[in-house]
Amino acid sequence: MRSEGFLVAERALAQHSEELAVRPPEPGELLAALTAAAPRLEQALASELQMLLGEDRPTVTCGKVEKLAAQKLHKIIDQVAVNVRLDDAAGGQAMASLDFASALVLTDQLFGGTGNVPATMPERLPAAADLTLTRFAASLGCALASALERPDPLVPGLRSDVLGKIIPAREPQQLFMLRCEVSQDGRKGWELLLVIRQDHAVRLLAEARAPSARKATPGDRRRPDAAPFGSMPMPLTAVLSEITMPVSRISALKAGDTIPLAMSGQVPLRLSGIEIARGQVGQSDGSMALRLTRIAWKEKDQNHDG
């Protein structure tokens, strides 16, 4: 039997678009995803606060994620409070809100206190609180990125004491609110409210919700400032002085002893015990600083070229 030939399609076969096929998540799914992220936020925020405050690791407890309307939110948050918008590179946003008492407690703790606040709340926060809130917002942006599995930290944006400038009372969208309490032994506790609009929750949870739909990008290992390593925090140690002492002397140390230190003109900067640079100790903006004079890998490159 002789074949009549191959069948030929009149037009190209249809291809489904994954972006069009994926339905938007329901509010219940977003609520479940935010609830699952809450324990991660507790750990990430506790770590960020420990680095910010320089004390023992605090305890962060997140309550139940609530769905509410904007009008109800305006009844919960004080008429005058510290409200900060945090922006994600993909267009998602979250809002953090602290009442004046919590802002003052955090400020006092950042400057070495236990969290004392005046009996009468001021009409405006002091300049020290402004500096505190700027640093706290940056730390919170890192914690949220870790909890929501975002590739980059959320960046502090608009800040206002008036809630309506960030979330209007007539906002038509559903809101999700998470109440976080921060406590620490010997220190006064304080509270933080996190609020996310429904459409922004979709953007912030997009990668965490559907990891299989992500396109794997291994990143350029020749560029440490690029993904996936660029945003990875690494601890650096500036060694101001090093001394040697016999074990017998070390075992006899007690409070009140004086140990003489000899400081070199060139202070080594180390990463995981390996010296990567050297610099001179000085001051910048009223704080101790290190002005780098030598970079280890640049010297290696010059020796290699020669």
Structural notes for this entry:
The protein folds into 2 domains: 19-212, CheC-like (Chemotaxis protein chec, 3-Layer(aba) Sandwich); 236-248 and 260-305, Surface presentation of antigens (SPOA). The protein has 9 helices and 11 strands. The protein has helices spanning 18-21, 27-53, 70-76, 100-110, 127-147, 198-204, 206-209, 247-251, 296-305, and strands at residues 59-62, 66-68, 81-87, 93-99, 155-160, 175-184, 187-197, 236-238, 267-271, 274-284, 287-295. Helix 2 (27-53) crosses helix 5 (127-147) and helix 4 crosses helix 5 (127-147). The longest helix is centred in the first third of the chain and has 27 residues, at 27-53. The model is unreliable at 209-221 (pLDDT under 50).
CATH topology (level 3) name of the largest domain: Chemotaxis protein chec
Q: Name the CATH class of the largest domain.
A: Alpha Beta
Q: How would you spell out the order of helices and strands?
A: HHEEHEEHHEEEHHEHEEEH
Largest β-sheet summary: 7 strands, antiparallel
CATH superfamily of the largest domain: CheC-like
- Structurally, the number of domains stands at 2
The computed structural class is alpha+beta
Low-confidence stretches: 209-221
Q: Give me the CATH architecture of the largest domain, please.
A: 3-Layer(aba) Sandwich
What would the principal axes of the Cα set say about the shape?
Answer: globular
Range of helix content: 25-40%
Mean pLDDT: 83
- What is the number of beta strands? 11
What percentage of amino acids are in beta strands? 15-25%
Euclidean distance between termini CA atoms: 77 Å
